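We modelled the chain as a single entity of 104 amino acids. Its sequence is:
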Amino acid sequence: MIITTTGSIDGKTITGYLGVVGGQAVMGTNFIRDFFARVTDKLGGRSDAYQKEIRNARALALEDMREEAEDLSAHAIIGVGIDVEVIGDSMLMVTVSGTAVTHS
């Protein structure tokens, strides 16, 4: 299934709009990962632990959204937006949404 942030699909004609679909993933982080992320933040550099966790959460949210679109018999999802939020001190939430469409 094509999943894109654009409002159209090159080479395809959108034949139907099936509605908004979405997916979510909420991931807990642990104390040790938080500690090393804070050290990395203070000293500079990238926090690989958080980047991996966000990447994993994004993949899960996209899969959740794709399954919802498949239930509608969609061929693609266009106009996808991705949002990452921190909940409290130890949770990451990734939400995705887009428009399920059919195309020819």
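As a brief sanity check on the tokenised model: The domain at 2-103 is CATH 3.30.110.70 (Translation Initiation Factor IF3). The radius of gyration is 17 Å.
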